Amino acid sequence: MFERYEAGERAVLVHLNFSREGEREDLEELELLVSSAGVSACGIITGSRNSPHPKYFCGAGKAEEIAALVQAEQAQVVIFNHALSPAQERNLESILKCRVLDRTGLILDIFAQRARTHEGKLQVELAQLRHLSTRLIRGWTHLERQKGGIGLRGPGETQLETDRRLLRERIKTILRRLEKVEKQREQGRRSRQRREIPTVSLVGYTNAGKSTLFNLITDAEVYAADQLFATLDPTLRRIELDQVGPAILADTVGFIRHLPHDLVAAFKATLQETRQADLLIHVVDAADERSGENIEEVQKVLEEIEADEIPQLLVYNKLDLLEDVSPRIDRDDSGRPIRVWLSARENRGQEQLFLALSDLLGRQIVELSLKLPPSDQRWVNAFFELNAVQDKSYDDEGNCLLSIQLPESEWLRQLKGSEGRLSDFIIE
């Protein structure tokens, strides 16, 4: 479905610095993305602008400079470290005489290379089709008008319209299939909730070492490499924790700055494992100078998928790249673990991580008594579905007296869904 790279393809990279902070990208991250896609960079062109040029994004003079480098290096593709509009892509291709790819297209191609499971391939194809639907005209400019003349009069639908209709139908088919996958995942989650098995989800910036840590904890053999988006398909494993018992650990796709919205939408089923988790292990590359910025970017994506309310444990990984830092647990004033320092590659700090997980998951069960008026009986069914009801009775006025026991994260989720009204029904 997508234009895939060939091994050893040569690319010219383009990186512009904008005055506005929100539009800035990282050149080093672009080089990592290109390397992860299997492409060799034969030249880099940088520049500065106050705002993107409406026609060429980089300006006419800079476009001619790129064209000269493309010709000198015999490059097959130009990769921009920014999001381009379909019109800008077409205008650049006409002047550069080669393929032009933006940051979103590059990430999509890496995802296409990494997808292994049926679900992962469907999600990537969905993201590609949504991205491609706005760029269809590029491939069909010679068929924009209907042909006329004897034997060439058709039913009145141009090739472009036909392709758009086929794209819409294919997107609907993929969404139906992903809906089935989501129902299966939901059944698994409800089964775990009924058995009161907590779920812990690994999240973090791409290449922070999540899969290496996952393999260390679970003795799994998930693919782990020093490259961006090495993990794409979610993997779940069972672990045993002291004072807690069995728990489910989920490894998920890494996040990145300005993660394309099409990808966030397409991977909703995968990210659902994160949204429904009882605890998030936020893995951070401790040796990365931009670790603070990366944490902020992950928080933005968590907020976008409505997972920012779930309790988090920060895990600073790759201590082997730092000097004079040993594995430890940092706690807040109440003694609650907030950070763990470890090295997954050298198997240092696993004991501290398990101790922190046991401490957090052991504390996370909340017990409450609620007095629900007749007008709010729907919450009774909601708590029964969560298998949280311990006791139920009614008073003379028809109010439901409910004793519930459930994970703190689930209570916070229900509280947010009620816009805080449930807190009014708590019996002190």
TrEMBL record:
Mg(2+) binds at S211, T231. One of its GO terms (molecular function) is ribosome binding. Its cofactor is Mg(2+). The keyword Transport does not apply. It comes from the Bacteria. GO terms for cellular component: cytoplasm. Residues 164-191 form a coiled coil. The keyword Protein transport does not apply. InterPro entries: EFG_III/V (IPR035647), G_HFLX_dom (IPR030394), GTP-bd (IPR006073), GTP-bd_M (IPR032305), GTPase_HflX (IPR016496), GTPase_HflX_N (IPR025121), GTPase_HflX_N_sf (IPR042108), P-loop_NTPase (IPR027417). Residues 198-365 form the Hflx-type G domain. It is found in: Cytoplasm. GTP binds at residues 204-211, 229-233, 251-254, 317-320, 343-345. Monomer. Associates with the 50S ribosomal subunit. Belongs to the TRAFAC class OBG-HflX-like GTPase superfamily. HflX GTPase family. GTPase that associates with the 50S ribosomal subunit and may have a role during protein synthesis or ribosome biogenesis. NCBIfam families: GTP_HflX, PRK11058.1. This is GTPase HflX. It comes from Ferrimonas aestuarii. The gene is hflX.
